[in-house]
Structure prediction request, 644 residues.
Amino acid sequence: MRRITIDPVTRLEGHGKIEIFLNDDGDVENVYFQVPELRGFEKFCVGRPAEEMPRIVSRICGVCPEAHHLCSTKALDNLYGVQPPSAAVKLRELFYCAHQVHSHIAHFYVLAAPDFVLGPHAEPAIRNILGLIKRVGAEVGSEVIKHRSYAQRVQEIIGGKATHPVCGLPGGVSKSISEEERREIEALARSCVEFGELSARLFDNLVLRKEEYVDLITGDVYSSPTYYMGLVDDRNRMSFYDGTVRVVDPEGEEVVRFPARDYLRHIAEAVEPWTYLKFPYLREVGWRGLVGGKGSGVYCVGPLARLNVAEGVSTPRAQEEYEKMYSTLGGGPIHAVLANHWARIVEILNAAERMLELSRDEEITSDEVRTVPTGTPREGFAVVEAPRGTLFHHYETDEEGIITRVNIVVATTHNNAPICMSIKQAAAALIRGGEVSEGLLNMVEMAFRAYDPCFGCATHSLPGDMPLEVRIYDFSGRLRETLRR
Amino acid sequence: MRALLLGLGNTILTDDGVGIYVVRAVAQRLEGEPIEGLELDVRQASVGGLGLLDLMAGYGVAIIVDALADERVRPGELCRVDLARGAGHEAFCLHGVGLKTALELGRSIGQALPERVEVYGVGTEDVTTFGEECTPAVRAAIPAVAGRLYRRLRALARE
Prediction:
């Protein structure tokens, strides 16, 4: 048998590649990043019963199966015109809050925190979770792993499986929870709230008390004013599971609010000649290319966007942290993309507090968890806030409920334009007159990491170190330089 | 010794699911020809990095089989992946850490992880198209690959 060493250069073409095009002055003209494209999803789904969708979609992404599963389940509610009983809605929300905690913990501690704790200029070999734990202590590491498992356990109790949940059915969920399970969830949730507090304290100590980091967060290189999109409840508070899509302009004024079924009336897709990626934009405002500001229809989704479109959050401790964030970084919509990391802390707190509230809800152990659908299917729409941002599912079926068309818009697609713009800004700060400064890779990496883009994680085949590769082209389109990590 | 045979992959992405198909074939063979002296669990999962820690905790040895996307490896070819050198087995995304880092992390906080982790990769042709069947060359190789892993497990039991 061959023994094979995987080095970061040998891998599938087209993963994690960033291309930078310079103009004839040697300054940055265009930037885009390339993601692997998974092919044939619609074809795969067409002809299958709609009820299979929640289990299929949970397999298209290795990181947020729960978000797809729930969004799909809600699309089936809509498809069959059925309203789940209140206890089922609460169980779904409880499950989903656990998912947010699970996902945000990994992003914050594994990906974001090392940049701040070890410094953005530290060597990648130590700028990782292991370096972080060496610096802040093994107890924090244990807490991270432990609470990730706690959140996972809650998802398992309600979802039926540790990953790839099977609980969602049109009109409700497949099973209720027992009093014993409720007590277990309550204890886990209480611990997750404490962990949220710990995370907020760590962020305060490690980031906010260091002027250079606050300057980095608020600096021009990482500032990107755009429109923002996210779900809000009926009091305009941030919402993960359900609500109305709200869009605000770069000054924070509401531009539009709409239900899932109207998404195509407000979101259009632009095509640029230099990339196969499509760029969603707000139809009301129009496409002006990769530029920010009020005159451009580019919008952003994700943790920071969610807080920017909301007027607050639903739980007390998270609300305190939310207010602290907006007073520290200066009211109104925050345009600093690195503030996404702080927004994740606010959301860990909110999701954990909400888990605890729901686990104490009298109705949560009710046996009434399903309304059997009787309507004739035709078309179903749904929206949820995935950890990385707004997620739409849209299915069409024949009268027998057999899928004829599928459309899914994921967070990374919404964020295509903002990600390219942020990378461009970081690159422009470090490439002048054809000269590439040291640290380009780090700065670029921090820019797109803030969005936590999902690179078709459905596949995780070896090797997938996702080494960052930046290619710089001159104005004639000739490859000038390739930088690799 | 408690051993884990873990198949990784996504069974709706053509060849990506090969690790899972292989361990299923091994499990079938084990039913007819159990291996004495080895307390073995066969599991399948679609997670990477940190997600693998909980799956591996408590075992003395873990054997992982996954799809391998590398132009040097023929579709269906079985390779041993060297974890100590190179980039190692990483989840195919930016959201987490790879197996090597995850193991170090787990050990640094005192988790009971296998002392020995062997990673095997099966060469693939297509891991980006949705589909529930492997490409012909990969599909044809599954019985032989499963046979080699079965023999590896038998050797392990004799150690």
